[in-house]
Amino acid sequence: MEQVLRRNPALRGWLLVLPAAVFLIIFFMIPLLIVFVYSFLERGTYGGVIWQFTLENLARTFDPLYFSTFLRSVYIAILTTLISLLLGYPLAYFITTRPAHQRNLYVLALMIPFWTNFLIRTYAWLTLLRTHTGLINVSLTSLGIIEKPLPLFGNDFAIVLGLVYGWLPVMVLPIYAALERLDKSLIEAAQDLYASGAQVFRRVIWPLSLPGVVAGSMLVFIPSLGAFVTPAILGGGKSLMIGNIISNQFLAAHDWPFGSALSMLMMIVMLLATLIYFRWALREGVQP
Amino acid sequence: MNDANRSHDRLARWRASLGGWILSGYGVLAYLFLYLPIVILVVFSFNDSRSTSQWQGFTVDWYYAMFDDRQIILSLWNSFFLAVVSTIIATVLGTLIALGLERYSFRGKTAVDSMLYLPVIIPDIAMAIMLLIFFNLSGIGFQPWKVQFFGVKLAVPYSVIIAHVAFNISFVAIVVRARLAQMDRTLEEAAQDLYANSWRTFRRITLPMLMPGIIGGALLAFTLSLDDFVITFFTSGAGFNTLPVRVFGMIKKGVTPKINAVSTLMLVVSLSLVFLSIIMRRRGGDDEPIQFGF
Question: Which 75-134 residues of chain A touch chain B by CB within 8 A?
Answer without folding.
Answer: 87, 90-91, 93-95, 97, 103-104, 107-121, 123-128, 130, 133-134
